[in-house]
Each structure stands twice: as C-alpha cells, then as structure tokens.
From TrEMBL:
It comes from the Eukaryota. The chain crosses the membrane at residues 36-58, 64-89, 125-148, 154-175, 187-206. The lineage of its organism: Eukaryota, Viridiplantae, Streptophyta, Embryophyta, Tracheophyta. One of its GO terms (biological process) is intracellular manganese ion homeostasis. It is a multi-pass membrane protein. Its main location: membrane. It is found in: Vacuole membrane. This is Vacuolar iron transporter. InterPro entries: Ccc1_fam (IPR008217). Belongs to the CCC1 family. It catalyses: Fe(2+)(in) = Fe(2+)(out). One of its GO terms (cellular component) is vacuolar membrane.
C-alpha cells in the first residue's frame, strides 16, 4: 500500500509539474512577431500621415494630399516587403549553412529535416510586413478623403493618427506584457514629432526657399 501511495503521489506531482509548465509562456517569443506587426503598422501610419501633412502645409487641394498619401502607401509597402524578404532570406541562408555544418559533423539527417521545417519563410514575412504597413497607411487616407475644409482635414488626420497610435501602443503592451502607459506615450510622442517636423520643414521650404 505504501508503494502504491508513493506511486500515486509521484504521478500527481508529475501532472502538477506539467500543468505548471503549461501555464508558463515565453513572452519574448511572442514579442518578436508583435514587434514586427506593430512596427509595420506604425511605420505605415506615421510615414503616410507625415507625407500628407507635409503636402498639406503648402497645398490646400485634397487631391494632392490623397495622391501623395497613396504614393507613399504603395512605395512604403513595396519597400517593406522587399526589405523583409531580403533580410529574412539572408537569415535563412545563414541558418541553413550552419545546420549543414552541424549535421555533417553529427551525421543526423532527420534533425536536418526537422530544423528546415522551422526555418523562417521569407515570402510570409514579406507579405505580413507589407500587409501591416498598408493597414496602418490606410487610416490617414480614409480620414482625409471625405473632408473638404483644409484646416479641419489636417486636424482630423492628426486626431485619427493619434488615436491609432495609442491603440497600437496598447495592443503591443498587452500582448507583450509591458507597461501600457509607457508604450502608448512613446509611440504617440514619436508620431507627433514625425508629423510636426515634416509639416514645419515643408512649410518653411515652401514659403522661403521655393
């Protein structure tokens, strides 16, 4: 009976240990794709909004702002996709070369096949990066598309971008288990700085230099 009780206690401890391990989660792994998604969306949001604010500093025509923003969306999405594809493909080549060296020494072909399946996919990375950029870039375009008054249009773009930046910061902090206020504050101030600098410099160049 004592031996059986010992076995039951051991099994119970094993289950408890497994359960405890199952509850643990490595947020550093999640943080990698969270960072990539938030970075892509934020880049699209801030860069396209800054372009539109720069054009809006010297032109009151809504078509000029929309066309500039759309050109920034297409160019930025292509740039993000190509850059991510090249970067991930280079990383993949390095990992494959290292795996071949390791497996050549160990003589383990099964491990090589398993490791190849876990390698990063350049096409998926490029598509995800472009999609994230486009998702962020669409917001300032939609915010400005239906407003005729120039000053109100600029204010609505700034307000919409600010709200989106706060949401992006909140989502990133929740998924990555980081402080919410600091995350939202950093991303919001960065977006404001980008739009303000672009607006101010473009207005100064348009009024004094050109």
């Amino acid at each position: 009976m004592a031996a059986q009780n010992d076995v039951r206690i051991q099994v119970s401890e094993d289950k408890t240990g497994q359960h405890g391990q199952g509850e643990e989660f490595d947020y550093s792994q999640r943080g990698q794709w969270v960072r990539a998604a938030v970075l892509g969306a934020t880049d699209g949001l801030v860069s396209v909004a800054s372009l539109m604010m720069g054009v809006g500093a010297v032109k009151h025509d809504v078509r000029a702002m929309i066309l500039t923003g759309f050109a920034g969306l297409v160019a930025g999405a292509c740039s993000m996709a190509i850059g991510e594809f090249v970067s991930v493909y280079s990383q993949r080549d390095v990992e494959v070369a290292q795996m071949k060296r390791d497996n050549r020494t160990a003589g383990n072909n099964e491990q090589e096949i398993s490791e190849k399946e876990s390698l990063p996919n350049p096409i998926q990375a490029a598509a995800a990066s472009a999609f994230a950029f486009i998702s962020g870039a669409m917001l300032p375009l939609l915010a400005a598309a239906f407003i005729a008054d120039h000053k109100i249009r600029l204010g609505v773009v700034v307000a919409a971008v600010s709200l989106a930046l706060v949401i992006f910061g909140w989502v990133g902090s929740v998924l990555g288990r980081t402080p919410v206020v600091k995350s939202c504050f950093r991303i919001l101030v960065g977006g404001w700085m980008a739009m303000t600098i672009t607006f101010g410099l473009t207005k100064w160049i348009g009024s004094t230099v050109l």
